Amino acid sequence: MPLPPDSPRFDRRAVAAWCLFDWANSSFPAVITTFVFATYFTQGVAADPISGTAAWGHALAVAGLIIAVLSPVLGSVADMTGRRKAWLAAFAALNVVAMAALWWVRPSPDSMMLALVGIVVATVAFELASVFYNALLPELVPASHIGRVSGWGWGSGYVGGIVCLGLVLVLFVQAETPLFGLDKQAAEHVRAASPFAALWYALFALPLFGFVREPLGGKLGMRQAVALGLAELRATLRSLLRPERRPIAWFLLAQMIYADGLTTLFAFGGIYAAGTFGMDLAEVIVFGIALNVTAGLGAFSFAWLDDRLGGRWTIAVSLAALIAVSTALLLIESKAWFWGLGLLLGIFFGPVQAASRSMMARLAPAEHRGQMFGLLALSGRVTAFAGPAILGWATVAAGSQRAGMATILAFFAVGLGILLVQVPADRLPR
Predict the structure, then answer these.
(1) Distance CA 136, CA 129 (A)
(2) What is the mean pLDDT of residues 312-318?
(3) Please, what sign has the CA dihedral across residues 404, 392, 49, 183?
(4) Mean of all residue pLDDT scores within the chain
(5) How many domains does the chain have?
(6) Burial of 240 (0-12, 13-18, 19+ CB in 10 A)
(7) d(CA 174, CA 34)
(8) Are 203 and 20 in contact (CB under 8 A)?
């Protein structure tokens, strides 16, 4: 069947550059928020792992609130001004600077505030950049390829995480003599992971700005765009109550809840491995590399399933698997079992994220894509403070990381229930 006249063509260079941005920004979740810096913060900076876990959770909660407020507004402004790439560049640059600044976090409780402020700024910048990056997808490829290209992007991101983590491990963390004569007593060989991740992001993000075209859109000035964008956002939120828009509203609600679970799992996975199973930083990084392998395989493997069956069923199957495997991980005591089940869990990370992106790309009206992806980020962050905060409180109250991690299951289960009961299958192009 021929493509509609206004359907974007499949430009291989542009698709490759777009996917490479996922490879680039993967350095932030892989090195900073999940495995290296998060573990360093709780084990080397905070006074003890329990208080460090709680402080980390509260910082991510603050970041989530900021993202929830800014993402839909900025998405709407980007639609009005027609400058999504400019916004993407600005927040990517802020993310890079904030990551690099974490080098000055020394292994002392005195550095806790610097670490927490840095992680809040970097997290906000990362998520807001993702709003504009995701909004480029629907105008990058034909609708029939949205699912697989979204999956390719997530898959390349996981591979990028593998390579970046591997280099951090070999060049710095486990090197007998780290590069540049770094002082291990001052944890410089661990702290160097942050500027290295920042350089990685900056270098591999550049091709997108050369090969991906700016989508056609409005050309209003900033002041007018802000005023109209806020009015348009209010109108769009009201429109979600109309019958034809309710599938989007229910999907955003479901995504809001299960994304909280994913965000919390990513933020505390390395901390849980270190605190409950006694992994040192080097072993956590090796585990992170292996986990990214299985996660990348899952994202690539489910990409075609997304285009064939739709995002709803791809998300549902993955969430059900995450619930089952996560429950087992909370019950086992053996480190060997933790490794096996943890790698199995990784297979289902990417499909949930990639299919959420492709489902919104199919559901969003063309003239409001930036705004809708802003709402997607809002739904993923408006209660993002809840997951880390509840986990932090449960960890402190019970004096157990297992008790805190168990709270994640509720987010997966409720999100899955709403998705299955209230969200119809996304219509696929034929």
Answers:
(1) 11
(2) 91
(3) positive
(4) 83
(5) 1
(6) middle
(7) 18
(8) no
DSSP codes, 312-347: HHHHHHHHHHHHHHHHHHHH---HHHHHHHHHHHHT
Structural domain harbouring 196? 12-422
Sequence-separated (6 or more) residues with CB below 8 Å from residue 348: 298, 318, 319, 321, 322, 325
**What Cα–Cα distance (Å) separates residue 183 from each residue in 108, 174, 192, 330, 394?**
15, 13, 10, 37, 37
**Residue 395 half-sphere exposure, CB side, CA atoms within 13 Å?**
28
Single-letter code of the amino acid located at 352: V
What are the tokens at 369?
Answer: 């894509």
Tokens standing for 383? 């209660």
CA 38/CA 139 separation, integer angstroms: 36
**Which pTM value belongs to this model?**
0.75
Domain contains 284: yes
pLDDT confidence of 429, banded at 50, 70, 90? very low
CATH number at residue 96: 1.20.1250.20
Opening angle at CA 294, ends 290 and 299, nearest 5 = 140
